[in-house]
Amino acid sequence: MSQHPFERSGCGRAPFRFVGIDYRVGPIKQYKNGQPTGLEIGAPGQPMGCCRHCGQGIAECCIIEDADGKRFVVGNVCVGKTDRKLHRVTDPEIKKLRKANRERREDERIDKATALFKRDDIGDALLAIPSPNTYRAKKHGETGFDFVEFMLTRAGRTGMMKAARLVEKIAEQVELDKPCCENCNRKPAEEVDCGGMTKTLCEPCARTEAPYMFSDRR
Questions:
Q1: Which helix (H) or strand (E) holds 104?
Q2: Phi, psi angle pair for 23, to nearest 5°
Q3: In the chain, at which residue ranges do the beta strands (DSSP E only) sit?
Q4: Fewest CB atoms less than 10 Å from the CB: which of 117, 134, 187, 200?
Q5: Model's pTM, two decimal places?
Q6: What is the pLDDT of residues 77-103, one digit of tens each?
Q7: Which sign does the torsion angle of CA 34, 39, 44, 47 carry?
């Protein structure tokens, strides 16, 4: 009888069964005696798991248990290449994990867009453009502001994401339209009186050229 590929790679002894899934990406906070140390390992989004079968770095870690109860981690791709029966169990779980992660990312974008929408400069920029809903824009004169307000408060996830993408686009344009510092090209920058001469400066440069403006600030 031929050996299971997981046996040949030293993962354990057949038969194997699926136990669960762990999602491992950086940054991972470090703890000592149950207390956070303030240190982190891994870049944002970096896969922090390792497939025991092939050695590839993975984020979606399938936890497998062998005949002796020993557990190890492999990627779903390796499961699919080595054990079709096991893959029929792991693949639906991977899809559930990906859906949950996608919805979590979407929720974060929607929350951020909702906060941006409250800014006056974003609201003014949205009022200046027609609604993406061309029918309502032509029939009722609705603006981008009306569209976003409706979608963020009354629509489902798909509609809220449409609003979030529009707000993100407008926010990017608003940032591009802001003036740059004359000295270093940083943003944001504003006009500062530098001893009788007006210059557009970011805060660090303004602190250097007009320190008196910040003498009462901590």
A1: helix 84-117
A2: -100, 115
A3: 17-23, 28-32, 35-41, 49-50, 57-58, 60-65, 71-75, 190-194, 197-201
A4: 134
A5: 0.73
A6: 999 999 999 999 999 999 999 999 999
A7: negative
